[in-house]
Structure formats: structure tokens, C-alpha cells
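Deliverable D4.2, example record:
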Amino acid sequence: MLRISRLTTDNAVTLKLEGKLLAPWVDEVRSACRRPAGGALRRQLDLSQLTYVDDRGLGLLRDLLRGGFEISRCSHFIAELLRMEESS
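Output generated by the structure prediction step:
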């Protein structure tokens, strides 16, 4: 299961992902990320409550980072997965 929450402030929109980012939810997360930011200058991902990411989910996170999203919070596990992905 995956929960997606959206928090908007004057200068940032943050999507918080909680649970497991698996292939069946990749399109849902991608769609949530494409919604207009309402003038927010920064687009952020809060991954602090993300407990697992499969290959498709990791690919999505990599694409979002390349597309201008920043990670505002992240567990050590997810940070290491992203670091490993960068080095391959």
C-alpha cells in the first residue's frame, strides 16, 4: 500500500510518500507529480516514511530527481538505493 499526501506552501509543493512504492503505483505517483504546483518554486519529495521501493519505483524516483524534484527527507535505506542507482 502507498499513501500520497500533498502539502503546498507559498514557495514549495511537497509530495509525501508513505509505504511501499511498487510498480502498480508508479503511474499514480507520476500523475500526482505532474499536477500543477500552483506557483510554487520548489517541488519536493518527502520519502521519510517510504519503506520499500522496487525497480520501477526506483526508476520513477530517478526520473523525478532528473526532472527537478528535490528530496526533502529520506530514510537511510532509500538514500542508499538512490546512491547505488547513481553509480551503476
